[in-house]
Amino acid sequence: MLIVAAAAGLFVWKRGSVDWAGVIALVAFLIALYLRLTRVSTQPERTWYDGRAVAESTKTLVSHAPINWSWSSTTPGQSTSVTGRVAAAMGRYASIPCKWGVTH
What is the DSSP letter of 79? Predict the structure, then answer.
């Protein structure tokens, strides 16, 4: 948008008493300002960092459990398979409230 605004500022395009190139430049600058303020206020990278932290924590929790590469568990009610360990780790996260007040 800033490139459009700068390019429009180079020209003069008058129709009557209105310089339409100037109007286009003004609108493009306002759109660029709005997009910048929206990005700063929502912080989309924060969501990515939070998701990455959960993924790393889950990987750490799963890697510290005993490994049984079979698809079934040997002890009734307790799974030590890889899929069971992932499910157990995710179950631990289910009780943690997130920053929006909703449990996962």
Answer: -
